[in-house]
Amino acid sequence: MEIRELTKEIRDRSIEYAKPKDLDNLSASWYQEDLLYSGKGKTIFLILPTPGCSWALGPSGGCTMCSYISDCYLKPIETSKIIELFEMELGKWDFAEDYKNGEKIAIKLFASGSFLNPEELPKEARNYILQRLADLDEISEIVVESRPEYVKKEIIDEIFEIIGDKLFEISIGLETSNEETRLNKINKGFNNKSFERAIDTIKQSKESYDIKSKAYIFVKPILLSESEAIEEAIETASYCESIGVDRVSCCPATIHRGTLIERLWRRGSYNPPWIWSTVEVINRIRENVNIPALMDTSGFGSRRGPYNCKKCNKELKHKIIDSNFDQSQIEHDCNCKSEWIAEVKFSNLNRSKTQTKHLPLY
Ligand code: SF4
Ligand SMILES: [Zn+2]
């Protein structure tokens, strides 16, 4: 409970001090190579302007590691403005040319919360966007994100009435299969039953539609040691496969501003995972499960992100990105590995949640 109160307090303060946002600068997009269900292709990543995640704006204060809210408008946005910004971002990329050259194209729509929640993205805006994408032969896969409570059969029916036979993936931030961690360390506010219900709804819809599910796995929540975080992420992927999730994507912690994770990090009681830990996680997940498993490398090698040493940060990041395409095992060596091994081996022994860097353990 204390975690929730702290999160709420920190969230309120960061909203209070947030600078007013210029609506025209709240959308963004980029276009790059990606692993699609149909194989290697290209994806348009498009951030839609929204008032912000309802969970973060509500009495819970939101999740302990997430600051998406600070990039949001915090007030309702006219549907016409959302459409205008969506069109502007879509118009930036020459995917039609790539399609002509045989490339497969997907689009990932980020609402900084739940695409399926009409309070975050009005239904009219959602329908317009989906219709626009339905009309584009070039785009074969549409990916959105949502909390599980918004995954409902009626909404899925509405979506497929518009998009027809395109592939539609709903990504859910499960973060971990450990309920104690999810409720009390991440402050996520839903249990495994709620997630399983959402996955079941998607599974049942497969009879009629080309629908898929993806789970995000958060690597190293607060108040877990390095080795606990590794084991939880690996167990979570197996849990996802066992209940019928179509693929998993691991998101190692980075320190977002105005979050509880940042406060602990500033006080020396938290560090993002080692890059070695992310390698261990993804290699073992790929050994254990038969669904595609991706590792996000955002923030790798930066002060606020996963870190090894100056010598191997970059090289390992590129190896991980490459391995996402062919789902291969990552092999690498560097002098800093012994330091990581000591951390993983001993952080549970001394009950420390901080790095053992300065202890003579290796
Ligand atoms: S992680 Fe998702 S549910 Fe949690 S606060 Fe951020 S956007 Fe909202
Ligand atoms: Zn190194």
From TrEMBL:
Q: Which UniProt keywords apply?
A: 4Fe-4S, Iron, Iron-sulfur, Metal-binding, S-adenosyl-L-methionine
- What InterPro entries does UniProt report for this protein, alphabetically? ELP3, Elp3/MiaA/NifB-like_rSAM, RaSEA, rSAM, rSAM_sf
Domain Radical SAM core intervals: 39-292
SMART domains for the chain: Elp3 (SM00729)
Q: Which GO terms describe its cellular component?
A: cytoplasm
Cofactor(s) for this protein?
A: [4Fe-4S] cluster
For this protein, the record's PANTHER family field holds: ELONGATOR COMPLEX PROTEIN 3, HISTONE ACETYLTRANSFERASE-RELATED
MF annotations from Gene Ontology? 4 iron, 4 sulfur cluster binding; catalytic activity; metal ion binding
UniProt-recorded name of the protein: Radical SAM domain-containing protein
Question: What domain of life is recorded for the organism?
Answer: Archaea
Gene Ontology BP annotations: tRNA wobble base 5-methoxycarbonylmethyl-2-thiouridinylation
